[in-house]
Amino acid sequence: MDNYVIPLDVKVPYPIELTVEEILNRRTNEKLWSRAPNNFFIYRIAYLKELKKMIGSNFSMITLSSYISTSWSKESPEVKEAYKRLSDQVENRLKEIRQNNALLIIHEKYSSPLPPPTYSVTSNEPIFFYPYFGYYYYDNYNNCYYLF
């Protein structure tokens, strides 16, 4: 894997050849709820893609990190701004995905909410017996349930 010499003349294409969908396709569904990669991380993806075209092999990120960082520092402000715009586009697309696929996330340590009280047909008072363990009382003042 690391038997190849890393070429120092890796030219990351400009204008950017990466697309928003290409960046998002690299993510798992769980990562769709994370922030978009910043401009440097997107540049890193482009660098690795170009290097793979040149060599056809993978390198460890430990080996490549300093090369990518050096290459990034040599890029012009307009190139960095283009990667920033792409990062913003990815974030906007992620927001769209999140809005269209809104999920209710419940933390494991919290129990499910208690059911609302049922009301008697003959009176407007709640029935405090539920087919669960124990009795529940709804406190209107504090807007909460108590388990007895």
Uncertain residue segments = 103-110
Beta-strand portion reads 5-15%
Characterize the overall form.
Answer: elongated
Number of E-type strands: 4
The structure class reads mainly alpha
Summarize the biggest pleated sheet. Answer: 2 strands, antiparallel
Strand order of the largest sheet: 1-2
Gyration radius (Cα, Å) is 27 Å
From the N-terminal CA to the C-terminal CA, the straight-line distance is: 65 Å
- Helical fraction equals 40-55%
Supply the number of helical segments: 4
The H-and-E topology, N to C, reads as HHHHEEEE
User: Average pLDDT, to the nearest integer?
Assistant: 76
Return the domain count: 2
Can you give a write-up of this model?
Keywords: Kinase, Transferase. InterPro entries: HMG_box_dom_sf. One of its GO terms (molecular function) is kinase activity. This is Kinase-like domain-containing protein. Strands 1-2 form a two-stranded antiparallel ribbon. It has a two-stranded antiparallel ribbon with strand order 3-4. It has four helices and four strands. It is mainly α and 148 residues long. The protein is 41% helix and 8% strand. The termini are far apart. It folds into two domains: 20-100, no CATH class; 118-147, no CATH class. α2 (39-55) packs across α4 (77-100). It has helices at residues 20-25, 39-55, 61-74, 77-100, and strands at 118-119, 126-127, 136-139, 144-147. It is elongated.
